[in-house]
Specification:
The protein is an alpha/beta fold and about 375 residues long. It has helices at about 15-30, 75-80, 95-105, 125-140, 150-155, 155-160, 180-190, 210-215, 230-240, 255-265, 280-285, 300-305, 320-330, 335-350, 355-369, and strands at about 1-5, 35-40, 45-50, 55-60, 65, 70, 90-95, 110-115, 140-145, 165, 195-200, 220-225, 245-250, 265-270, 290-295, 310-315. Helices cover about 40% and strands about 20% of the residues. An 8-stranded mixed beta sheet has the order 3-4-2-1-7-8-9-10, sandwiched between helices. A 6-stranded parallel beta sheet has the order 13-12-11-14-15-16, sandwiched between helices. A two-stranded antiparallel sheet has the order 5-6.
C-alpha cells in the first residue's frame, strides 16, 4: 500500500511533534507493507525521491511564509502528480495551504487527516479561514485526533465527531540513536546525576518563562535542550532572575538527547496553552521511565501524563504550583521512582510506534475496502 503524507515541513529541515509523528508512521509502516512518501515545502527548493532513513521524501519550493503558513506555487503541480501514484493521501493539519491544494487537485483517493492542533494563535485570521477549514474537514474521509482529551475539548472536532478516530502518537525506541558509555559519562560529569529536563522547541506556548520563575530560590539543576524563537528572551530572563541552576544546551544530536533522558531525575513540560496539542517529548520521557510534570490544558499532555500515576499535573501558567511539583519529585525519590515505573508501563500499553502504526493500517484498509 502506498501512502503520501502531506505537511508544510519535515525532517531534516525542521523538527517538531508533527514531523516526528510522520517519521514514526513512515518508518514503522514498512513492517506492515506500507510504502510511505512525504511531500513538504523547503527553502532548499524542489526535489524528488530523496531518501530519509528508509522512506522517500519530496520537496516543493517554499516561496514565502505568512502567519506561520508556508506558501508555494509549485506544490499544486507536485501534489497532483504524486497522488496519481499512491493509494491513500494522509494530510497533517493545520496548514491552510494544504486545504487549497486539496480542492485544486480534486483528490479522488481515500483521505485521512491527522488533526494535530486547533488554530490557536492566529485568532483574527482564523475568522477568515474558518469557512475553508470547515469545508476541508468535511471533505476528508476520516479525521484522527491524537488523544481523547483533545477530541473532547476541541470545538472544531465536535462538529465532526461522527468521523473522528483516536490514535495516539507512538514512539519506537529502536529508531533513536543510542549514546555510547563515554557520552553518558561526559554528560554526567557536566550536569550531575540528578536534574530536571525539558526537551523541545523554545516557542511561546512551551511555558518556559514560568519554569524559570519556578526555578527561583531553588538549587536543583534544570536542563533545557532545544532552540527556537524564544531562546534569547529566555536567556535574558534567566540572567535577570540571577538563575545559576538553569542550563541552556541548545539543539543537540539525537544520541545526546537520549543520554539526557537516561540521566535525568524527572521530566518537566510546562506548556500552558492549547497550542501544545499532544507532547511527543512526554512520550519519550515515559519511554525512558521518567516521572513527569505537565500542565492540565485539556490536551494530550495529561493523557500521556496521568496525575498521581505517571507524574504530577499542575494548573497552567502557575510557577508556584510548578515549583511545588518539582520540590515533591526532588525530595521524594521513592515517589519519583514509582511514577517513572508506571510511566514506562503506560508507554508500553498505549504509546508504542507499533500500536500506532497498526491502528493507522487498519484505518487505511477500512477506507480502501
Amino acid at each position: 500500500m502506498r501512502v503520501l503524507h502531506f505537511f508544510k515541513s519535515y525532517y531534516p529541515e525542521t523538527f517538531g511533534g508533527c514531523e516526528e509523528a510522520i517519521f514514526q508512521l513512515a518508518e514503522g509502516g514498512r513492517a506492515l507493507g506500507i510504502d510511505a512518501q512525504v511531500l513538504s515545502l523547503s527553502r532548499r527548493g524542489a526535489a524528488r525521491n530523496e531518501p530519509y532513513c528508509h522512506h522517500v521524501c519530496h520537496r516543493s519550493r517554499l516561496d514565502f511564509e505568512f502567519a506561520s503558513t508556508g506558501f508555494s506555487v509549485s506544490v499544486f503541480r507536485d501534489f497532483a502528480q504524486l497522488i496519481k501514484t499512491v493509494d491513500i493521501v494522509h494530510y497533517h493539519f493545520p496548514w491552510p495551504m494544504m486545504d487549497l491544494v486539496h480542492f485544486a487537485s480534486r483528490v479522488k483517493k481515500p483521505t485521512v487527516l491527522t488533526y494535530h492542533s486547533d488554530v490557536v494563535k492566529q485568532k483574527q485570521l482564523l475568522k477568515l479561514y474558518q469557512p475553508l477549514q470547515r469545508r476541508f474537514l468535511a471533505s476528508v474521509d476520516r479525521i484522527v485526533a491524537e488523544s481523547p482529551n483533545y477530541a473532547a475539548s476541541s470545538p472544531v472536532l465536535a462538529r465532526f465527531e461522527h468521523k473522528v478516530s483516536i490514535i495516539p502518537i507512538g514512539q519506537d525506541a529502536s529508531l533513536q540513536a543510542q549514546p555510547d558509555p563515554r557520552q553518558l559519562r561526559d554528560w554526567e560529569r557536566k550536569l550531575g546525576d540528578k536534574f530536571f529536563l525539558f526537551v523541545g522547541a523554545l516557542r511561546y506556548y512551551k511555558g518556559l518563562h514560568h519554569l524559570l520563575q519556578a526555578a527561583q530560590g531553588r538549587s536543583y539543576p534544570i536542563v533545557i535542550m532545544g532552540e527556537g524563537p524564544e531562546e534569547a528572551a529566555l536567556k535574558q530572563q534567566a540572567r535577570r532572575l540571577g538563575l545559576t541552576n538553569v542550563n541552556f544546551l541548545g539543539a543537540l544530536p539525537e544520541s545526546d538527547k537520549v543520554a539526557l533522558y537516561k540521566l535525568c531525575h524527572a521530566f518537566v513540560f510546562p506548556s500552558h496553552i492549547r497550542s501544545e496539542a499532544f507532547g511527543v517529548a512526554l512520550v519519550e520521557a515515559a519511554m525512558h521511565g521518567k516521572p513527569m510534570i505537565s500542565c492540565e490544558i485539556g490536551t494530550g499532555t495529561t493523557f500521556i501524563n496521568l496525575d498521581k500515576v505517571t507524574g504530577i499535573a499542575v494548573p497552567p501558567a502557575s510557577p508556584d504550583k510548578l515549583r511545588q511539583a518539582m520540590d515533591d519529585l526532588w525530595n521524594n525519590p521513592r515517589m519519583a521512582e514509582t511514577y517513572g515505573r508506571q510511566a514506562r508501563r503506560r508507554y508500553r500499553n498505549v504509546f508504542t510506534s507499533e500500536r500506532m502504526v497498526g491502528q493507522y493500517v487498519r484505518l487505511y484498509n477500512a477506507l480502501l475496502a
